[in-house]
């Protein structure tokens, strides 16, 4: 009898956990998991009020379940979340979701949900995602990281069938990235007075992707 009670209890926990995962998010996760590797050339434009940095070029390489690698001949300012086009950070640890209703942007309705990690290994505490349920993808998310502050990531796509975005806009907190001035690059012009002030500062980075190779898993 005790064994049956324990089994029933465990089954109830599993069922509850399953009910806490949004079906649209699971569908997006499954779709992103089809990407095995990709390579891309990236053009970066930095918009920070006290820093003038020319456009930069970089090359990135992604292998599933690993951090994206960046290659460049010069310093490139890319917050970690700006390169997470595979959404690996959101999905790599167990999580639950909370439905937050809908939001209208430019006369289009999107689903809003929270992704909350259920593992201490996750490097963020909560993410709010904006979902295009018709095209089965996340177009924007705000993520509260444990070390690097809050990021807002907006993703745009060339085609309705595209899985990976063609360009990304990343808004982040300057104070949390803690980059010494000497690493800004020789061609960067910096207003040091504003940089050193204690006023809250944010920056925006625009990334344009040209994919040179994409491989998919065959399940």
How would you characterize the overall build of this protein?
The chain is of the alpha+beta class and 219 residues long. It has one domain (2-216): outer membrane lipoprotein receptor (LolB), chain A. The chain is 19% helix and 44% strand. The chain is built from five helices and twelve strands. The chain has helices at 2-19, 23-32, 88-91, 174-177, 192-196, and strands spanning 35-47, 51-52, 56-63, 69-71, 95-105, 108-117, 124-132, 137-145, 150-156, 167-173, 189-190, 202-216. Strands 4-3-1-12-10-9-8-7-6-5 form a ten-stranded antiparallel β-sheet. The protein has a two-stranded antiparallel ribbon with strand order 2-11.
List keywords for this structure.
219 residues; ten-stranded antiparallel β-sheet; alpha+beta; 12 strands; 5 helices; single chain; outer membrane lipoprotein receptor (LolB), chain A; disordered N terminus
Give the topology.
Layout: H1 2-19, H2 23-32, E1 35-47, E2 51-52, E3 56-63, E4 69-71, H3 88-91, E5 95-105, E6 108-117, E7 124-132, E8 137-145, E9 150-156, E10 167-173, H4 174-177, E11 189-190, H5 192-196, E12 202-216
Antiparallel strand pairs: 1-3, 1-12, 2-11, 3-4, 5-6, 6-7, 7-8, 8-9, 9-10, 10-12
Spans of at least 5 consecutive residues with low confidence: 1-18
Q: What is the number of helices? A: 5
Rg value: 20 Å
CATH architecture grouping: Clam
Secondary-structure element order, N to C: HHEEEEHEEEEEEHEHE
Q: If you consult CATH, what is the topology?
A: outer membrane lipoprotein receptor (LolB), chain A
């Amino acid at each position: 009898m005790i064994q049956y009670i324990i089994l029933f209890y465990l089954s109830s926990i599993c069922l509850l956990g399953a009910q806490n995962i949004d079906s649209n998010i699971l569908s997006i996760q499954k779709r992103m998991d089809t990407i095995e590797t990709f390579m891309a050339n990236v053009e970066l434009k930095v918009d920070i009020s006290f820093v003038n940095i020319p456009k930069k070029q970089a090359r990135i390489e992604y292998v599933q379940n690993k951090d994206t690698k960046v290659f460049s001949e010069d310093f490139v300012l890319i917050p970690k979340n700006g390169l997470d086009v595979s959404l690996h950070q959101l999905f790599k640890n167990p999580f639950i979701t909370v439905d937050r209703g809908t939001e209208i942007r430019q006369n289009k309705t999107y689903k809003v949900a929270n992704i909350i990690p259920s593992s201490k290994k996750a490097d963020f505490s909560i993410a709010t995602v904006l979902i295009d349920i018709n095209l089965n993808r996340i177009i924007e998310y705000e993520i509260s990281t444990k070390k690097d502050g809050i990021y807002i990531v907006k993703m745009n796509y060339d085609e309705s069938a595209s899985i990976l975005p063609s360009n990304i806009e990343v808004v982040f907190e300057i104070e949390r990235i803690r980059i010494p001035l000497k690493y800004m690059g020789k061609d960067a012009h910096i207003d040091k007075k504003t940089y050193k002030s204690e006023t809250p500062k944010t920056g925006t980075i625009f990334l344009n992707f040209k994919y040179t190779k994409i491989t998919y898993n065959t399940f």
